Amino acid sequence: MTEKKSAKEVEDEVVSADEAKKHIESSKELAEEAARELRLAAAEKARELREAALKAKEEYQSLVREHAEHFQHEAVDKANQYKEFAEESFSEAQERIGDYQQQGEDYVRENPLKAVLIALGAGFILAKIFRH
Fold this sequence. Notes:
This protein is mainly α. It has one domain (7-131). It is 94% helix and 0% strand. It is rod-shaped, with a radius of gyration of 51 Å.
């Protein structure tokens, strides 16, 4: 039992099919346009992110350079401080050695017999130590 459709019904179905096809084409065009806009927006966002990353990189490099220069100056200052301390310590040690030498010479001049006996005793002890 097939139903027979009237010419009007067939015509309405054809018009509905044509309209549906037009709606599908229109929707397809809208989807393609939306996809194009989305691609453009994504490309723009990628460009913005790339620029932000480059700016952050440059700022980071500048900060690293500043810190490196600061640490270099600090290291040079510390090295200079240690050098000055070493020079002062060396100078003080030389003065003390000079003082001890002068005291030794003065002692020998004031006590020549005692100095000779101490030297002989020290020589004798060292000879015994190194002989064995």
